[in-house]
User: Fold these one by one.
Assistant:
Number 1:
Amino acid sequence: MRKNDIQYRKEYIRPMMITQHVYVFKFGKHELNNRVIIRYSHSWTGRLKINEIDLRLHKQHRPRIFKTEAGLVDYLESHLQSNILKNVGHSQAAEDSTEDFIDDDDQNQTK
């Protein structure tokens, strides 16, 4: 994550009253405003069992809740694709507007 200039912080919380363990992972490009909360327990064989994964992007009030890692990965891939398409649309619109602006200046200078 640091390779992509994304800051992060990890925290481990073990509640006293229940057998679930909680792992909080905060991350973000400029601020730590995104977080993943993983609630897990141990099975009787000692394996980790993920009970719930909460994802809050950009300080959402209602988190997206997933039961499996596969659901989380699918959502993140679709969210990433929609953001890429949105950014491409914005950058093309900005380029078109700057090209129009430059074309107008070039025409005024030749007159």
Note: The beta strands are 7-13, 21-28, 34-42, 48-56, 64-66.
Number 2:
Amino acid sequence: MTPSHFDRTADLMLEHLGSDGDPGWVYFRQFGEWELLFNLDNDRRLVPKLIGNLERRGLVETRRASAGMQVRMTDAGRKHCKAEEARLAAFALEYHILPLDDLPCPSDAKK
């Protein structure tokens, strides 16, 4: 991956981490299913590399626990996620993209 693609993939990982609010401390291994979408080169160290990228930018912090390495978002990471959500919302508004919740369901159609 080129550096800009690597940063973007790390940002996607951060967004995944914050997608259900702030989960607190999360084990690296919990990114296994998410990693399958992005690890096309079968890099065994992709998750630690992405987390290292986020940590260098001050968006997450890590710690070693007895069962493995853990990561959590910092205040800067939470702000980064909120800014990305706002950017995507503005993009959707500008291009008239409806959220999936607002789309009509085929079963709601009257016969």
Note: The beta strands are 26-27, 60-65, 68-73.
